[in-house]
Amino acid sequence: MKIVVCSNGKDLDQDVAENFGRCPYFLFTEIENGKISGSEVVENTNTEQAGGVGVAVAQMVAEKNANAVIAGAVGPRALEVLNQFNIRVYKASGSAGEALEKFISTK
């Protein structure tokens, strides 16, 4: 399972970003047998875009075959795109690592 955590920094010690479309980084994390088996940090290059950021980011997340997104909030148009690709969205706050561990423990 591939989980994307929207983060304010490049590692799991950073806080979950409040805004999905304009978060600074995406932490793509592979989960196997309840453990993190791999990860990739992707910088959000869409933050300066005037409009349609959430949709562009949702399409990027779908292209990378994510199964779920953890973020502070996701806008309605981005949510529509994520739903089209059956990508689940989970709201979280605090550190990215804590949010990811909580997600893993409930699956």
Description:
The model has no long low-confidence stretch (mean pLDDT 93). Helices cover 29% and strands 29% of the residues. By secondary structure, the protein is α/β, with parallel strands linked by helices. It is built from three helices and five strands.
Break the fold down into its secondary structure elements and pairings.
Elements: E1 2-7, E2 25-32, E3 35-43, H1 53-63, E4 68-71, H2 76-84, E5 88-91, H3 96-106
Parallel strand pairs: 1-4, 4-5
Antiparallel strand pairs: 1-2, 2-3
Helix pairs in contact: 1-2
Helices, by number, come to 3
Number of E-type strands = 5
N-C termini distance: 11 Å
If classified by CATH, what would the architecture be? Answer: 2-Layer Sandwich
Q: What fold name goes in the CATH topology slot?
A: Nucleotidyltransferase, domain 5
So what's the overall shape?
A: globular
Secondary-structure-derived class: alpha/beta
Helix content: 25-40%
Radius of gyration: 12 Å
Overall pLDDT, averaged?
Answer: 93
CATH class: Alpha Beta
CATH superfamily: Dinitrogenase iron-molybdenum cofactor biosynthesis domain
Oligomer: single chain
Q: SSE order in H/E notation?
A: EEEHEHEH
Largest sheet features? 5 strands, mixed
- How much strand? 25-35%
- Please state how the strands of the largest beta sheet are arranged side by side: 3-2-1-4-5
Question: In terms of per-residue confidence, which ranges show pLDDT below 50 for 5 or more consecutive residues?
Answer: none
Total of domains: 1
